[in-house]
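One such shown below:

_____
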Amino acid sequence: MMLKKLLVFPLTLAILITPALVQAKGSISAGKEKTANCANCHGENGNSVVATFPKLAGQHEGYLYRQLKDFKDGERNAPMMAALAMALDDQSMQDISAYYASQTISANLPPVIFSDDDDDDDEEATAEKNAEEVKELLLLGANLYRNGNLKSKVSACIACHGPKAEGNKPSSFPSIKSQHSDYIIKALTDFKKGNRSNLPDNMMHLIAKKMTEKEIKAVAFYISMMK
């Protein structure tokens, strides 16, 4: 029986992706003291409350450090983060990265789809329909994560991010499990449109541009439920 060739899908979200391994050696205790400005958006322990801000808790230390460096050096376009990173010296970036890496990422509530039809009189039927849509998207997302889409050459996330979306620390592929689905959708959309540019070979851009909006939403929902 012919085996399907698993395509590489390095789906990146939280702060997501760099191909080079960076060895950050920071102090967790010092890092905690230096996260006052970070906590406003990312939460005191790296679990953001607002779904458009990525969770940093449990992310690989070297990956976090690389992203801060990219923000500071202008390799990654984000004015707010660039301004904050500019004020950090190298040791502070390592300390902050060490602190967030030591934290545990929180689980998410199941995704919900709300109807755009404000005139819908049958709320129960609408809720049931939306629940079925979520179920369909989760199934599609699971298939994309594990197998990709051979027809459109969308690669499988599992190849780079692992069976539990834990990432690959030696290869510097980020952990993406339990990330906010809203942030994942934004990150993939940014890659799709070319708004994320800190990946030298544009790996994620090449993959995301082949994905439909439905596929992006589906895989985001599925990853947000992974623990």
